[in-house]
Specification:
The complex is a heterodimer of chains A (324) and B (540).
Chain A lengths: L2 H39 L6 H4 L6 E5 L2 H11 L12 E6 L15 H13 L4 E6 L5 H12 L7 E3 L6 E5 L8 E5 H4 L3 E5 L1 E5 L3 E3 L1 H4 L8 H5 L3 H11 L4 E10 L10 E10 L2 H11 L13 H8 L12 E5 L1
Parallel strand pairs in A: 1-12, 2-3, 2-7, 3-4, 7-10, 8-10
Antiparallel strand pairs in A: 1-11, 5-6, 8-9, 10-11
Chain B lengths: L2 H19 L18 H11 L7 H13 L2 H6 L1 H13 L16 H14 L5 H4 L1 H34 L18 H13 L7 H6 L1 H8 L7 E4 L8 H5 L22 H5 L5 E4 L16 H20 L27 H7 L5 H5 L5 E3 L12 E3 L12 H5 L10 H4 L6 E4 L5 H5 L5 H5 L5 E4 L8 E4 L9 H5 L8 E4 L11 H7 L32
Helix pairs in contact in B: 2-6, 5-8, 6-11, 6-14, 8-9
Classes of the chains: A alpha/beta (324), B mainly alpha (540).
C-alpha cells in the first residue's frame, strides 16, 4: 500500500467515524427535543407565558400591507408589549435589491412605515431602519426611505463603512463565534425583524433568521469558512429580535433572493415573538416552487429548532388569525 | 497678496473643485475636464496620434492664439501644475538664494521633449501622458492627493461623530467617506518628488526646462503684442533678472526672452524705479534669443528618437493589435471601461489623466502597469475584484477629455459589454465544496447567472449565460472565495466600437442585457429545472 492510498484509507475511516458521530449526536438531540416536548405537554417545564390563557404565539393577518401589519402585531398585544417608552428600536427589513415592491425582493415600504409608526406611538425615542444591501445603497433603500420620510430624514440607512460596526463574540455560537455587528443594533433596546417572504436558492427560504445576515459586516465568511445554515443559527443565537413581522403580502416563491421569480400576492402578514415559529409558519403557509414544503426541509430552520432558538413545530403553538 | 497670486489660487481651487465634481452622478456647471482641455500638448499630440480632431480640445487652440497677444499667461495664471510647483518652490527653496546654476541654454530641452513626443505620435503612439502638465497634475491630485484627503476626512468625521455621541448628539449618523484606493500611487509620487525636488536647483524647474506644453506656448509667444517693456528709468540693477522665476531676462535687463516670459510680472513688482511695464511697445526692444538658438539639428534628432521609440513599442510583443488576431497576447485583466475605443485608437487618445478613475463610483477603474507594454502604462482598466462596473453609471465616458472613452447615454452604456464572466469550478464553493452559496446569482444585475441541480452535487451550482453577461463584475466582486474569485470576468467578447450604436451591435450579436428591475418574470425562467427535483436550497 503506497502512502497515498494509505492516506485515503485513513480519511475514509475518519470520515465514517465523523458521520457516525454526527448521526449519534443527531439522535441525542432529537431525543432531547422529544423529552422536552413531552415535558412541555405534561405541563412540567412549559414556559409560563404560554400558560397565560392562550397567549398568541403566531399571529396571521390578511389584508393590505399597513393594516395587516398593525393587526398582526395587535394580536400579540400591540407594539407596546415590545417597545417601552424611551427605548431605542432597530427595524431590519429587506432592502438589499434595487427593485420595486412588486418584485418581492424587498420588504414592502408600507409595512416598514407602519412598524415605524407603531414604534413611535409606543413612545420609542429612536427608531432606525437598517440593512447592509448588496447593490449601491441609495438605489436599494429608496422605496423604504421615501415611505418613512414623514418620520425624519435619517431614519432609513444602509450601512457599509466599517466605522458603523463593532466586533463582538457570539457566546452561544458553536463555530461562527466572532463578527462585526452594526453599532446601532448593539445599542438598541428592541430589534424587530421585518423580512419579506422569499425563496432563497442556497438556504431554501430567506426569512427572519436568514435576514439577520443583513446586520453584520462580513457575510461572505459565513459562506466560505462555515456551513452557511449553521452559521445563520450561530448568528441568531445573538441577534434575536423581540418581534418578527414577516411581509407575505407578496411572496417571491422561486428564484430568490434576487429574482426575477414567480411572485404570489398573498396579502398576509405573520408576526411572532419566535423567529423560528414565524419562519416555519411562512414556509407552511405559502407555496415554494409550486409545491408545499415543510419547515424541517429548510436546514437552518431545523438546526435552529434543534438548538432551542425557537419552535418549528407550529402545530403545537397557538395561532390566531385575523382578516382586516 | 498680489493680483497674480489671487488669480493663481482661484484657478487652482477651480481646478480642484472641478476634479472633485468628477463623480457619479455628474453635476457640474462647467466641464470637469476644463483644464485638461487647455493643454496644447494634449491637443496637438492627440491630433497627430489619433489622426482626428477632438472638438472639446479646441479650447487649447484658442489659448495658443491668445498667446500671440498676451504671451504665456497660461503658465503663470491658469496652469494648476505651475501653481503647484510655485507652492513646492516656496517650501523647497526656503533659504536658497541666487538663480539657477544651470546654463540658460538648457531651456531648449523642453523643445526636445516636445519633438520626441510628437515624433512618436506620428506613428500613432501617444506618449503625451508622460509629460503633459495637465495630465500629470490631474493624475497627481486624482490618485494621490484625493484619496489621502478622503482618508483624513473620514477619520475626522468619525472622531466628530464619536465626540458628538458623548454629548448625546447625532451627527450625520450614516455619512461615511469611502476613500478611493489606487495602484501605482508611488509611481506618481516618485515623478512628483523629482519635479518638486528640482526646485532646489532652480525655481519652476519643470516649466523652464522640461514642459512641452510650455514649449508650444513659447512657440506662439515669440513677440506677443502685450509684452515686457523697460523704459529708460532703468538703472540696470539686475534685480528683475535675479527674481524672474523663468530666467526670461537677459544679461541686459532691457532685453527679454519672450518665449520664456510667462507674464507673471514679478519684474514689474520688484523694480525699484518702476521702469518695467507689460504693454504694447512703442519701440521694439528685440527678442533676447533666436529660436532654438541654433539647435535645429538636435530637434530633428529628438523627433527621430521619438519615431524610434514608437517603432520599438510597435514591435513589442505586448501591443494589442485587435481582439481576434492569433498569436497576440491579451492579458485576462485588460478589461477596458465601457465605451473604450478599439485598443489602438484608445491608447492613441488616452491621456492617463485619471479623470475616469477619479469619477468612477466603485473605484473599479485602476491604472495598469506594464502588462501591455510601456505605451499603455497607467491607462484605465476595470478591476472587478475591487469593485463592479455599476450598470446605471456612465460617468467615465462623460469625463474623458479626449474621447478615448465614448460618452454613452445610460441606455447605450448597458450594451457596451466589457467582458464575460466564467465560473472556475474548482474554486467554487458550490461546485467544489458542496457548500450553500449563490452570491453570484444573487448579485448579478442582469440575471446572467442561473443555478441548476447537477448529478452528484448536493447543492445548486452556478452557470453563466454569456449572452446575458455584460461583464460588469458584480459576481467577481462579491464572490466569497478568498484569493482569486471563483467567478471571474475576462475581456472575452468585449465590444469596442469606434462609432455606432452598442445596442445595435450587441443585439445583432445575440446579446440581451436586461436589468432585473421589475417583476419581469416569465414562467419557466427562474423555476425551470426544478420540476422533478427538490427546489434549490431545500433538503429532503
Amino acid at each position: 500500500m503506497d502512502s497515498r492510498s494509505l492516506f485515503q484509507a485513513l480519511f475514509r475511516a475518519e470520515d465514517t467515524f465523523r458521520k457516525g458521530l454526527t448521526r449519534r449526536e443527531f439522535i441525542t438531540s432529537q431525543a432531547r427535543g422529544a423529552l422536552l416536548f413531552a415535558a412541555g405537554a405534561s405541563g412540567l417545564v412549559i414556559p409560563s407565558r404560554v400558560l397565560a390563557a392562550g397567549e398568541t404565539d403566531i399571529a396571521i393577518a390578511r389584508g393590505g400591507p399597513g393594516p395587516a401589519t398593525r393587526a398582526a402585531v395587535g394580536l400579540l398585544g400591540g407594539m407596546g408589549a415590545f417597545v417601552k417608552p424611551g427605548s431605542k428600536v432597530v427595524i431590519k427589513p429587506n432592502m438589499s435589491f434595487a427593485r420595486g415592491p412588486e418584485s418581492a425582493t424587498n420588504t414592502d415600504p408600507e409595512v416598514v412605515r407602519e412598524l415605524v409608526a407603531m414604534c413611535r406611538e409606543a413612545g420609542a425615542s429612536r427608531v432606525r431602519v437598517l440593512d447592509h444591501p448588496l447593490r449601491p445603497n441609495e438605489q436599494c433603500i429608496e422605496g423604504v426611505s421615501e415611505a418613512c420620510r414623514v418620520f425624519g430624514d435619517d431614519l432609513v440607512q444602509a450601512l457599509e463603512d466599517e466605522d458603523f460596526y463593532r466586533e463582538i463574540t457570539l457566546p452561544q455560537a458553536e463555530k461562527f463565534r466572532k463578527t462585526e455587528v452594526m453599532k446601532e443594533v448593539l445599542d438598541a433596546d428592541v430589534l424587530i425583524a421585518a423580512p419579506v417572504a422569499k425563496a432563497h436558492s442556497s438556504t431554501g427560504v430567506s426569512l427572519s433568521l436568514k435576514g439577520m445576515m443583513g446586520l453584520i459586516r462580513n457575510r461572505t465568511i459565513m459562506h466560505w469558512r462555515y456551513d452557511l445554515s449553521s452559521a445563520i443559527v450561530d448568528l441568531c443565537t445573538f441577534l434575536r429580535p423581540q418581534l418578527v413581522v414577516i411581509d407575505g403580502t407578496r411572496v417571491l416563491t422561486t428564484n430568490g433572493p434576487g429574482g426575477p421569480g414567480k411572485v404570489l400576492k398573498m396579502d398576509t402578514i405573520i408576526a411572532s415573538r419566535d423567529m423560528v415559529a414565524a419562519d416555519a409558519q411562512a414556509i407552511e403557509l405559502f407555496e415554494w416552487y409550486g409545491r408545499k414544503m415543510q419547515p424541517r426541509q429548510v436546514k437552518h430552520i431545523s438546526i435552529a429548532h434543534e438548538r432551542g432558538l425557537g419552535r418549528m413545530d407550529i402545530h403545537n403553538l397557538i395561532t390566531r388569525k385575523v382578516q382586516v | 497678496m498680489t493680483f497674480h497670486r489671487v488669480l493663481q489660487a482661484f484657478m487652482l481651487v477651480l481646478f480642484l473643485v472641478l476634479l472633485y465634481l468628477a463623480a457619479f452622478p455628474l453635476v457640474s456647471p462647467l466641464p470637469v475636464d476644463l483644464f485638461l482641455r487647455m493643454d496644447p500638448l494634449i491637443l496637438v499630440g492627440t491630433i497627430i496620434s489619433a489622426r482626428s480632431l477632438v472638438p472639446a480640445l479646441l479650447l487649447a487652440a484658442f489659448l495658443l492664439v491668445t498667446t500671440f497677444f498676451l504671451g504665456r499667461f497660461f503658465c503663470s495664471y491658469l496652469c494648476p501644475m505651475g501653481t503647484t510647483i510655485d507652492m513646492a518652490d516656496r517650501v523647497v527653496r526656503r533659504g536658497i538664494t541666487g538663480g539657477s546654476p544651470l546654463p540658460s541654454s538648457l531651456r531648449t530641452l523642453k523643445y526636445l521633449v516636445l519633438f520626441f513626443v510628437l515624433g512618436a505620435a506620428l506613428l500613432g503612439v501617444s506618449l503625451v501622458f508622460l509629460v503633459s502638465p495637465l495630465s500629470l497634475i490631474t493624475r497627481f491630485y486624482a490618485v494621490v492627493i484625493f484619496p489621502v484627503a478622503a482618508l483624513i476626512a473620514d477619520t475626522g468625521l468619525n472622531a466628530l461623530r464619536g465626540a458628538a455621541d458623548i454629548f448625546g448628539l447625532t451627527i450625520l449618523p450614516a455619512a461615511a467617506i469611502e476613500a478611493p484606493r489606487y495602484v501605482l500611487v508611488w509611481f506618481v509620487v516618485a515623478v512628483f518628488a523629482v519635479v518638486f525636488g528640482c526646485a532646489a536647483i532652480s525655481p519652476r524647474f519643470w516649466c523652464r526646462y522640461l514642459c512641452p506644453a510650455g514649449a508650444l506656448f513659447a512657440l506662439c509667444s515669440r513677440r506677443p503684442v502685450v509684452r515686457r517693456v523697460v523704459d529708460d528709468r532703468c538703472i540696470l540693477c539686475g534685480l528683475c533678472r535675479q527674481q524672474c522665476p523663468m530666467d526670461a531676462i537677459c544679461e541686459d535687463p532691457m532685453k527679454t526672452r519672450f518665449g520664456e516670459c510667462i507674464a507673471c510680472e514679478e519684474c514689474v513688482r520688484v523694480c525699484p524705479v518702476d521702469a518695467v511695464r507689460f504693454t504694447y511697445p512703442v519701440h521694439d526692444q528685440g527678442d533676447g534669443e533666436t529660436l532654438f538658438s541654433g539647435r535645429r539639428r538636435q530637434l530633428v534628432w529628438s523627433g527621430l528618437f521619438g519615431i524610434g521609440a514608437a517603432l520599438v513599442s510597435l514591435a513589442g510583443l505586448h501591443r494589442v493589435q485587435g481582439q481576434t488576431i492569433l498569436g497576440q497576447i491579451i492579458p485576462p485583466s485588460l478589461i477596458r471601461p465601457p465605451g473604450a475605443l478599439p485598443e489602438q485608437d484608445f491608447l492613441a487618445r488616452c491621456m492617463r489623466c485619471g479623470e475616469c478613475m477619479k469619477a468612477c463610483p466603485t473605484n473599479t477603474l485602476q491604472p495598469i502597469g506594464l502588462i501591455t507594454g510601456f505605451p499603455a502604462l497607467a491607462s484605465p482598466v476595470i478591476t472587478p475584484r475591487r469593485g463592479p462596473c455599476e450598470p446605471l453609471c456612465n460617468v467615465c465616458g462623460q469625463v474623458c477629455p479626449t474621447g478615448a472613452l465614448r460618452d454613452l447615454s445610460p441606455g447605450e452604456k448597458i450594451w457596451a459589454k466589457v467582458g464575460t464572466a466564467y465560473v472556475i469550478r474548482h474554486k467554487c464553493l458550490a461546485w467544489e465544496f458542496d457548500s450553500e452559496c449563490l452570491i453570484c446569482d444573487e448579485v448579478c444585475p442582469f440575471d446572467a447567472v442561473t443555478l441548476k441541480r447537477v448529478p452528484e452535487i448536493g447543492v445548486v451550482v452556478p452557470f453563466v449565460d454569456e449572452k446575458k453577461c455584460n461583464g460588469c463584475g458584480f459576481c467577481e466582486y462579491q464572490c466569497p472565495v478568498q484569493g482569486q474569485s471563483a467567478i471571474v470576468v475576462e475581456p472575452m467578447d468585449a465590444l469596442r466600437l469606434e462609432a455606432g450604436s452598442y445596442k445595435q451591435q450587441a443585439t445583432e450579436l445575440g446579446f440581451s442585457f436586461e436589468m432585473k428591475q421589475k417583476a419581469d418574470f416569465e414562467p419557466g425562467q427562474g423555476d425551470a429545472g426544478f420540476e422533478d427535483t427538490l427546489p434549490p436550497g431545500f433538503t429532503e
